[in-house]
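Incident review: delayed structure delivery

Summary: a single-chain prediction request sat in the queue longer than the usual turnaround. Root cause was a stuck worker, restarted by the on-call engineer. No data loss occurred. The affected request and its eventual output are reproduced below so the record is complete for anyone auditing the incident later.

Affected input:
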Amino acid sequence: MSNNNQVQLYVRNEGVQKRISELLDKRAPQFTTSLVTAVNENAKLAECEPQSVLNAALTAASMDLPINQNLGFAYLIPYNTKSGNVCQFQMGYKGFIQLAQRSGYYKTINVTDIRKGEIKSRDRIKGTIEFDFIEDDKKRDKEPIVGYVAYFELLNGFEKMLYMSAEQIEQHAKRFSKSYKYGGGLWKDDFDSMASKTVLKQLISKFGPLNTQLQEAVIKDQTVDGEYVDNPAYSEPVVVENAEMGSSEESFTDTNIIEAEESA
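Output delivered after worker restart:
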């Protein structure tokens, strides 16, 4: 029996289907079809431990995010460990934007790359940067990317931006991502999207109001069965802002992490 069939048989098992139905109700059939399709399209994903694949997909489903890899909302990532292959859940930057829009807190939210020469001035006290964007897209595309900036404005008028240079993003990736270290995964296949996600996630988690789904997205991003596996030495801080009171408290993702290496 192929690994592909093992995952499919596990997902279609009567007990597993009952669990899926209890969790997702009418969405269960569509979820099962999407999951089986994802496994069929990724040979390495088909080699993963079946329960970890299901759990990663259910994490996306709990936030009502599609697992179609081409859409970029959420990803199921094959991940190699000493005890076997497992599936890692990863958020896409589009997923963070989608959840922010649904929360009802955000009036505007966006992320973009910054090209050489576009930074005009900085106010380090206010935490703002003035940009002089190149209007001609063809001319702009020829300039190297020097960083990424994320921005949001809340319905109550509060606004915040966060800029990370290309060097800062690279250092962040080295610290928190095994796939970047080994030159594989989404960092290799779609660096722009991963860089955009990094700066947007940092902005939202540190300065934005987080409802339950956004908290779950920040905490469960890059986890396997709820455990942060990309770097056993670190866990990313999650600052949860109270939308009404403006208070915040800092918590950390689980540091009880298995030693792992993400597949290329």
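Verification: Residues 233-264 have pLDDT under 50 and may be disordered.
Action items: add queue-age alerting; document worker restart procedure.
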